[in-house]
Amino acid sequence: MVSAHQGYIEIEGITKNIDASPLVSPLTGTACVWYWVSVEHREQSFGESKRSDWRRIYQHESDNLIAVEDATGECLVDPESASIRPNMRRQWYGATERPSGVTNSVGGHFFGDYRYTEKLLLPHRNLYVLGWFKTIAHDPYVVENESVASLLRAWKHDPQMMKTFDLDGNGSIDSKEWDQAREAGRQQIQAQQVKELERPQQTHLITANPQSRRPYIISADDQTVLAKRFRRWGYLLWASSVLAFFFWVSAYYLRP
Fold first, then answer.
1. Per-domain boundaries in the chain
2. Tens of pLDDT along 32-42?
């Protein structure tokens, strides 16, 4: 990674959390480096069809940067706008809006008015990334701002921490209280600046490129598995195109 050229590249490495406190799934508390979760509620229809449909009542995706490490160094990966193939995907059912536990869909619970879905990228696992690579010089002021933003994102998902900034106790954070939270975050980051010299002088980052239509992929599958999958989809698309052309020609020449 250290010698990788700037621009569109692919890397492989081992995932790890960049913060001291690991990221966890809000549904099950499972340690991870990325999650996507949802809760759906079964809505009954009492019309002629008498059918039931699932309505999504909660959905959240983590936006924390993911650290990927190989023998040459470390790279940070921004999951925003990426097509992500997780290590783990599980779905189960229950009777409450938030699950009391998790049961894998295979051999698990298939009944209940609530359906839970969880997708995870796990720490200390292989990860393949195809995206836009860039190296950022270690400007202390830029790093400080990025660190504060990352810390504030983590605080947003910590009800106890948010409660400390809700000074008027009305259950929400207004703009003045949020400014105070931002300043508290800045002070905490500034207290850590004594460790700045221990950090690398450059930060390697992979993101989506808004000026490019090339795919941005983060996958727990390696290149071989992905190549087979894309090749299979290519064959299916080719076969579909041939069939569509055949039916069009048949319809054209057989019309009265």
1. 7-138+200-231
2. 999 999 999 99
